[in-house]
Design a protein that fits this description.
Strand content: 15-25%
Shape: globular
Helix content: 25-40%
Radius of gyration: 16 Å
Number of helices: 7
Structural class: alpha/beta
Distance between the termini: 25 Å
Order of helices and strands: EHEHEHHEHEHEH
Largest sheet: 6 strands, parallel
Length: about 210
């Protein structure tokens, strides 16, 4: 395994749209020399107490563990919207991170968020904001998308200054368009650069 600092790209995706954003963000991260991307997902939650998910899902990214987050130098977190909020599986994982909060493991590390919705005004910005709140409680440094990314003003689908978004369509079958792909890649590049800069600053201060 690489000794390079890594950005944890952590997501929940049911139909694959949020996963597509995660993969594009990871590509942006890995375009920056000196930092890796580690893609992880979270298992679905079930009202059936006896339901047990395998440690490794049948396809896609493996499930995140607390150490993936503890040892990350940066974080990109993504979820589809659920009534303007993050999906329950991702919230469930974040609710399990109290020990990281108690130890201050995430303080001064950069973070960003991404989301996908079935409709254009389906809660993209509020979903990004709900993901931002626990990151601030952890002392992370949040980074959105600046308007120097000109695709923000050209997009007809997803894209916000709070983080990249994707308009998946009512059947969740609309692929990432040119602007969404461009913004997701740029967001990955930005979080990678910030990860390197803040990692160096933390080392210099220790």
């Amino acid at each position: 395994m690489s000794d390079l600092p890594y950005v944890l790209v952590l997501y929940y995706s049911r139909q694959g749209a949020t996963r597509a954003l995660a993969e594009r963000i990871a590509a942006g991260v890995e375009s920056v020399a000196g930092v890796d991307a580690r893609i992880r997902t979270v298992p679905p939650v079930s009202p059936t107490c006896e339901a047990v998910d395998p440690e490794i899902p049948e396809e896609g990214a493996i499930y995140a563990e607390l150490d993936d987050l503890r040892n990350a130098s940066g974080l990109a977190i993504g979820s589809p919207t659920r009534f303007g909020n993050m999906a329950a599986p991702l919230k469930h994982f974040l609710d399990s991170t109290s020990e990281l909060w108690l130890s201050g493991a995430l303080i001064d590390k950069p973070a960003t968020a991404f989301t996908s919705t079935s409709s254009l005004h389906g809660g993209q910005e509020t979903t990004l904001m709900t993901m931002l709140v626990p990151l601030l409680h952890h002392g992370m440094v949040y980074a959105g998308l600046p308007y120097s990314e000109t695709a923000l003003t050209r997009t007809q689908g997803g894209g916000t200054p709070y983080g990249v978004s994707h308009l998946a369509g009512v059947r969740s079958d609309r692929p990432l368009d040119e602007h969404e792909r461009e913004l997701a890649f740029a967001q990955g590049e930005r979080i990678a650069r910030l990860t390197l800069a803040l990692s160096a600053a933390r080392k210099a201060a220790s």
